[in-house]
Amino acid sequence: MMCATQGREIVRYRAEVHRPREERDALQSSLESDRIIGLEPPQPAPEISALEAQIVDLNRDLDRRSDEIRHLEAHIDDLSQDRGHLESTIHHLTSEMTHAGGEILDLQQANYDLDRSREDAESTLSATEESLRWTRSELDRV
């Protein structure tokens, strides 16, 4: 899961390593052909050594960058797993919330029904008490 910029960076590093290698190879080739011809150039070895040191440094940088990329990819994988767990938790909590919302609606309806039953019972009680008062007053008259 390498990022495009990281991929381009690695390609750039590889190109940087390739260029000094080509220069070194050209110098070595030139040295070899000079030796074959019998000419000894004046100390070109330091140039080759410098190029080889540059190649070693560039390879070290490339290895370090590759390690960083692997580390970042592992971190991205961990984050992806965490995201998956969080999405699962969100789904579960959303389901629980929906279920709780349904229970709240059921309880609100039951509360409404109980209020209506209480009001009906109070109305019936009031009518019964009124009827009882009327009956007592009629009995008291008799």
Coarse structural class: mainly alpha
Biggest sheet layout: none
Percent helix: over 70%
- Output the helix-strand order: HH
- Helical region count? 2
Taking pLDDT < 50 over at least 5 consecutive residues as the criterion, the unreliable ranges are: none
Number of strands: 0
**Total tally of structural domains:** 1
Mean pLDDT: 85
Instruction: Report the sheet-strand fraction.
Output: under 5%
Radius of gyration, in Å, reads 45 Å
Distance between the termini: 102 Å
What is the approximate shape?
Answer: rod-shaped
Could you characterize what this model shows?
Keywords: Coiled coil. Residues 48-82 form a coiled coil. It is a single chain. With 142 residues, this protein is mostly helical. The protein is rod-shaped. The chain has one domain (4-141). It contains 2 helices and no strands.
